Amino acid sequence: MYITQRSVIKSMKKKINTLHHNYTAWQVLLIKGSFFFFIYVILMTTVSCVFQIISKIKPEIIFATLVVNSLGVCISFFIFKRIKQLKNVTLLQWFVVIYLTSMPIITKYNYALRMDWTFGVESYNLSAIIIAVVMASQLFYNKKIFGFLSAIVFINWLFYLYLAYNKGVVFNVETIQYGKVVHGIILFREFYYMIAMMLISILVYRNIPIAINYDQKTVKQQLQIEKQKEEIQEYANTLEVKVEERTTELKLSNEALIATRDQLWGEMQLAKRIQQVLIPPNPIIDGYAILGYMQPADDVGGDYYDVININGYSWVVIGDVSGHGVPAGLIMMMVQTAIHNTLEQNPTIAPSMLLDIINKTIYKNIKRLNDDKYMTITVISVNKEGGFEFSGLHQDILIYRDKSKSIEVVETDGMWIGIFEKVDNFDMSFKIETDDIVLLFTDGITEARSKLNKKEMFGNERLQSIFKKGVDKNLLDIKDTILRELKEYDINDDVTFLLLKKL
Q: From CA 148, how far away is CA 140, in angstroms rounded?
């Protein structure tokens, strides 16, 4: 029987411990309170019957006590189930609490009337404190019920002491405690128990509204959490649609970018192809060996070299448009076209006059482009006897003199084209002998920077040294030597050079 009851109680407690997932904090508190009150009624019924049996109370009284208290057990359990279902049980709470509280009080009055008031006083304090503790911790956490019953217990205590005093109960009696005579032990004990009960009553009475307020805040927070969950769920439900829409937008954008890229790439390839076509594939001048090289920094570069043969006259041109890429390549193509058109009409024109005509055209076109580009350029008229007449400001002209085995530097002078509407260039000249070699180049070579030391540039002196070392070989070897040395440098500009050797 005991094992069965114990297992049932353990099972019920286990179920109660899982309530936190389904109820608010206040609801859990009410359910647990009603459950433990139900347990208290069972224990109180058991203790009452056991004490009556020990005291050899008449069987009919014991049976009556068992029936009455069993009714309290049933009502307490019914209240527990109703609270668990979140039903209103206020009237039942008032009934069972008043009923179960009045029973021990009535019992003590019955003992006092039938037996002895002194015995009633000595035993009543225990009942009072038990009732107070039960109300303080388990009376369904109802402030009105708790306040009412606390007052009833306290008033009844005072009233009972008054009746006991009138019946001749002596409170200031002598008794022996720990070998000493102590006076007033009964009254002192009564006050001790009552003060303890009052402290418990006050504390619980004050804590009930705090617990209610806390639960209200918890419920509000829970509602906010639920609202946020709903918003998150709603966002999650629409997220897939939004992602799909965004994916479609990105797909369309990507397709547009691909189309633009392909179109731009086609235009870039076309511009690159045009530039390659404009570069002479097999430059020829009678009496000279010629080798040219050009590598743009981008797909389209701004460097320009040309070898032109018109009506028995030969011209060599080298130049560099500021910057690189498509804008520089476009200006380079304009210059190439202007030079060819001018020489077609007058192949014997002076180099300085050629530059003046080119500048007028290029200056106007650059203004239309709303750009600040300019071009360094040197145009050279070549004759078979080794005479060179040139004009225009560009990089120095390097000449290897075979007889002296030395490098001669011919400085260029004049003005860049494309900056001013009118330029003042003048004509200069030099002459070479058999096996002498002329090197024309752009600054993409000399301004390349070392991969090991970014402050170190390739420079004119290094180029002259490499040029001098390679002259005993053919022009192709000189070209390969220059490019091999450049591999140790970072190149950020177009690289162009032209070699002419007199035969």
A: 13
End-to-end Cα spacing for the chain:
129
378 has a pLDDT exceeding 90: yes
Query: Quick one: average pLDDT of 144-152?
Result: 74
DSSP letters along 68-89, please? HHHHHHHHHHHHHHHHHTT---
The sign of the dihedral angle between the CA atoms of 74, 78, 79, 81 is: positive
The neighbouring-strand residues paired with 318 are 305, 378
pLDDT score, position 180: 47
At 430-488, the pLDDT tens digits run 999 999 999 999 998 999 999 888 889 999 999 999 898 866 668 988 998 999 999 99
Residue 223: HSE in the Cβ half-sphere, 13 Å Cα cutoff: 6
Between CA 376 and CA 41 the distance in angstroms is: 111
Residues 6 or more apart whose CB falls under 8 angstroms from that of 318 comprise 304, 305, 306, 377, 378, 394, 395, 440, 441, 442, 496, 498
Amino acid residing at 26: W
Query: Left if phi > 0, otherwise alpha if psi is -120 to 50, otherwise beta: which for 170?
Result: beta
Please name the fold of domain 282-502. Phosphatase 2c; domain 1 (3.60.40)
CB 494 within 8 A of CB 303: yes
Q: With b meaning 16 or more CB within 10 Å and e meaning fewer, what string describes 44-70?
A: bbeebbeebeeeeeeeeebeebeeebe
pLDDT in the model for residue 229: 72
Local structure of 284: helix, strand or coil? coil
Closest CA to 91 of 159, 140, 31, 27: 140
Q: How far lies 143's CA from each of 82, 99, 137, 496, in Å?
A: 19, 18, 12, 99
pLDDT band at 183 (very low <50, low <70, confident <90, very high): very low
Rounded Cα distance between 352 and 392, Å, is: 7
User: Where would I find the beta strands (DSSP E) of 158-223?
Assistant: 174-177, 180-183
State the Cα–Cα distance between residues 192 and 184, nearest whole angstrom: 12
- How many CA atoms are closer than 13 Å to the CA of 222, on its beta-carbon side? 13
Close Cβ partners of 93 (under 8 Å, ≥ 6 residues apart): 79, 139, 140, 142, 145
Residue 397: pLDDT band (50, 70, 90) is very high
Q: Which residue has the tokens 């109680």?
A: 9
For the chain, domain boundaries: 2-232, 282-502
